[in-house]
Input
Amino acid sequence: MNDMIICRCEGVCLSEVLDAVEDGANSVPGIKKRVRVGMGYCQGRVCQPIVRDILESKLGNGTKPHLQRAQNPVRPVILGDIVR
Amino acid sequence: MLSNSYRLDQTEQKTIEFYFNHEKLIGYDGEPIAASLLANGIKTIRTCEITGENRGIFCGIGHCYECRAEVDGVPNVRTCLTPNREGIEVFSSNPSLNKGELENES
Amino acid sequence: MKVDVAIIGAGPSGLTAAIEMIENGLTVAVIDEYYRPGGRLLGQHYEDPKAAPDQRVWNGKNIADQLEKKARGLGVHIFTNVTAWSVSEKWKIHLSHPKINMIVSKVLLLATGSAEKALPIPGWTLPGGISIGAAQTFTNLHRVAVGEKVLIAGIDPLSLSVMIEMKNAGIDVAGMVLPPISPASGNHHTPVQTVARLKDVAGLAPNSFIRTFGKYALAWFPRLIAHALRFNFLKVNGVPIHLRKSIVRIEGSEQVEAVILQSVSADGKPVGQAERMEVDAVCLSAGLYPLVDLAETTGCTLVDIPELGGVIPLHGPDMTTTINGLFVAGNITGIEGAKVAIAQGQLAAVSILKSLGKNGSITVQEAKMEMEKARIQSPLRFLPNIDEGRTKLNKLWEKEGVI
Output
């Protein structure tokens, strides 16, 4: 279970995410900074709901952790698209 | 070991020839490349750059980018939403899947 | 390119809004990444026993085609296979298009719909592991079977309707099982909780069920499912729904080859042996959530309302947001399905027309009533507490949102 992939884009597994929480991360951006979840092609579209669920179950008490906020560009673009 | 993915029906759509890692395949004109691949029983489209594991279609609508491949020279194209056309050349970025590259190495 | 209104998303809400606005004198452009318009309508094909006899078959692709044809015929500019990768100022929409790299508009309507929540299971990244939405799209739209023998993990209204669609297409669906009981998949998937949610699928009981048990049995469907808890599984369309089995992991070296299943008690504790089942595809279902990435970049206020599916743009009853000239419609406002999305598209359009000094074909009040009607008529309830969610939203809007 611990080597189950959580972030498909960056290959981050559950044990790394749990370690990040142990290390003090209490928000999705906090976990992202430590282990790179949400930094790949999908920008958290796939993994953020999972990371959020893990955080909420670890933090307990109905705590709502801060979530990753999308930034421009919201999809990967080639330089040509931006430069033109 | 069973493994198959296949077309549910034969329709009147126009068929085309395209290439996946140098292999010639038949698809329908205008359907997403990922659909043509799956119809040919091909589930593995690329390998994960970090873990090396096989990857294929996941979300099917362009959100996850798992289905990405090089299409006619353009890298990281989402095959689940890119229409297939006659003569298209699709390549996995990982040489171990891309049979042509391996041949060149020897 | 300059238009009055730019719409991102060519699904049911976006296309409906476009039609309403162009019919009443605005210039409209619709942008969608997919290779054809229609959004999630494209994969939908089921029978709605709540509808009138001549409207019983819901063929999403046909509806999408009709909407597209009407929109194009009226002069709506529809861009497909084009990504709106950024929006800025009011409003510059940046596109990945070979010739038109930007659209400028007075008003922006975000109709970006929803994305799927992933269901992580050990081995889920193996080729053959796909989301339930992908299974629906490949079965109904592309007409390709995703596997020789398919297992569905996650028992909910959507996965149940896709199972029925796959079975009707002749695919060997080995069964439906519960998700893994683990911290990564949330803690509300025990048999008892699953059954409680299944009552929302009563509106979509398969036709075969009605034929077998008569249409009065429709009222018994929820109770039948509850009883099924005692008998370990229920069969629908010949497919076993294992309400007391949970998936543990997916196995395979190059791709999906088998799954390991574990029997569980009614409150989700493992009991008895694990078993191995050979399958070559697993469809994962864990629900939908609003796709707000572009919305987040506009600076509009967003709120987290779990009853509506998650984080959504804070919006008023007429589909306005906390930013002037920014509107929303469809699943981005909360997961309610196509019928509500269509009504919201029209409501947003009428609001936009009003904001630009024009009349719509109906009034804002009439459009709101249409939306309420659509809500009641929806065959599939994705979320059980939508009404509570909407009440929460309206309270927040009254407090924080009115400009």
User: Anything to note?
Assistant: The interface with chain A takes residues 33, 83, 85-86, 88, 94-96, 101, 115, 117-118, 120-125, 182-187, 286, 289, 291-294, 296-297, 304, 310-311 of chain C (CB under 8 Å). Residues 129-284 of chain C form a domain with the FAD/NAD(P)-binding domain fold (CATH 3.50.50.60). The longest strand of chain C covers residues 239-251. The CA atoms of residues 94 and 102 of chain C lie 5 Å apart.
